[in-house]
Amino acid sequence: MSDASESQMPIFQVVVLLLVVVAFGGWGFLASSYVGAQARGVLEMTEEELDAAKGGRTLPIKARATSVAYFLTNAADELPNFPQVMSWHFQNRIWLPITIAGVGLCVLIGGGILKQVDSQLHPQPRKRKRN
Q1: DSSP track, the chain
Q2: How far apart are alpha carbons 14 and 129 in whole angstroms?
Q3: pTM attached to this predicted model
Q4: What angle do CA 39, 45, 46 make, to 5 degrees?
Q5: CA angle, corner 120, sides to 117 and 122, nearest 5?
Q6: pLDDT higher for 130 or 86?
Q7: What pLDDT digit, counting tens, does each position of 70-99 carry?
């Protein structure tokens, strides 16, 4: 029978994966915010989607899929404009990069706490000193 700890993902890997998700998601939000501010007055939603949003109904699955696809392609399209996007956010919307950095910091702190709890629950055997 295999040990239960062998089938689990190490805390370090979980923290790194979460940081990657925060970084990619954060970039997506930064890119979308930048594009939205540069293209004022452009409306991407159809009349049906606007009516559904006003009435409190949820958007159809197709509209949600389209929104996610737009978010991802927008993030990829804005990668060459990384310096402009970051500069614009530090000048106009400093709260968004600070929020993303704060979420990343929370992931790191949470990973450190989990590592401490794990070491307390599963202490490593000490090696005996030889005289």
Answers
A1: ---GGGSSPPHHHHHHHHHHHHHHHHHHHHHHHHHHHHSTT---S-HHHHHHHHHTPPPPHHHHHHHHHHHHHHHHHTGGGHHHHHHHHHHH-THHHHHHHHHHHHHHHHHHHHHHHHHHHSPPPPPPPP-
A2: 34
A3: 0.73
A4: 135
A5: 105
A6: 86
A7: 999 999 999 999 999 999 999 999 999 999
**Which residues have a Cβ under 8 Å from the Cβ of 19 and sit 6 or more positions away?**
104, 107, 108
What span, in angstroms and rounded, lies between the C-alpha atoms of 79 and 42?
21
Amino acid identity for residue 31 in this structure: A
Structure tokens at 8: 């689990």
- Count of beta carbons in the 10 Å neighbourhood of residue 97: 16
And the tokens for 24? 């990619």
User: Are 22 and 99 in contact, with CB atoms under 8 Å apart?
Assistant: no
Determine the Cα–Cα distance for residues 49 and 52; give it in Å rounded to an integer: 5
Over residues 32-59, mean pLDDT: 69
